[in-house]
From TrEMBL:
Protein name: Leucine carboxyl methyltransferase 1
Taxonomic placement: Eukaryota, Metazoa, Echinodermata, Eleutherozoa, Echinozoa
InterPro entries: LCMT1, Ppm1/Ppm2/Tcmp, SAM-dependent_MTases_sf
Organism for this UniProt entry: Stichopus japonicus
EC numbers for this chain: 2.1.1.233
PANTHER family registered for this protein in UniProt: LEUCINE CARBOXYL METHYLTRANSFERASE (PTHR13600), LEUCINE CARBOXYL METHYLTRANSFERASE 1 (PTHR13600:SF33)
Coiled coil: none
Keywords: Methyltransferase, S-adenosyl-L-methionine, Transferase
Record flagged with keyword Methyltransferase: yes
Sequence positions that bind S-adenosyl-L-methionine: 52, 77, 150-151, 178
One of the record's GO molecular function terms: protein C-terminal leucine carboxyl O-methyltransferase activity
Amino acid sequence: MGDEAVQSTNDDASQCKRFAVQKGYWKDPYIQYLVRSGDRRAPEINRGYFARVRGIKVLLDQFLEKTKCSCQVVNFGAGFDTLFWKLKDENKLPDIIVDFDFRAVTSRKCQYVKVRPPLLDQVKAVSGSEAVQIENAELHSPKYHIMWADLRNTSQIESKLRGIDNFDFSKPTVFITECVLVYLQPDKSSELIKWAAESFANSVFINYEQVHMSDKFGQVMVSNLRGRRCELEGIAPCQDLDTQKLRFVSNGFDDAVALEMGEVYRYLPADEVHRVERLEFLDETELLNQLLQHYCLCWAWKDKDQIVTEAVIAL
């Protein structure tokens, strides 16, 4: 599978998120400046994205609360994610947020930020007297960085992070991957996870991606993606919840939890779920349940100083 095909998945996922935002599933006033409107998505897709976005946010919020925002966020394969702007609005910005992706993706994102004041002004607002630098397909500011790197090259990632003046490898750090590892060969995703575990003594790794891919429904998903030139090269660890956890524990993390998204959905605040379920009529829930069963949220932690485990031990 070529890198261009992987990059195209960012556009598809981003448009799905924008459509769900337009329908009222969650608030994101910034995604409109990064992502153009796309085709209508089915209610099942919208609810699935709601569970994905909200589940990750619950875990991240717990981490930020536990560390009192004295921490770092590294978003691998961030695409057009708007996490920096949303956390600023919520007054929950960590010390640093770093978005990594392919150069072709970061180039577009940096250009959008540069020419759209609602995005750039927010970055400037937390930069004090320091200038926001946007060049070479990267953005650098005291609190927020957009950087390009090949996630198959941990030496490049480490070099990029060490080039950030106030980035601290000893500080609590949370890593986020959304449908990213599944596109890497298993040895390369293991290498990335192992690097994170060995380099950060107090860290959490939050991973959202497919699971139960060996059953009939999973095989149809794989076939459909293959038809779009999206080969899931890292499918092996996606066989079940145990293999999802094992990939982290066997590569240096202390422990891990993995839940099907159906279970995550049930853990979300009842009033919020009730509101969302009234947005669009869903005549039959079978497809939604199948989709939720074939994606999972897995989070692992490395907690040398006993400062992060309580933040993410449960939803």
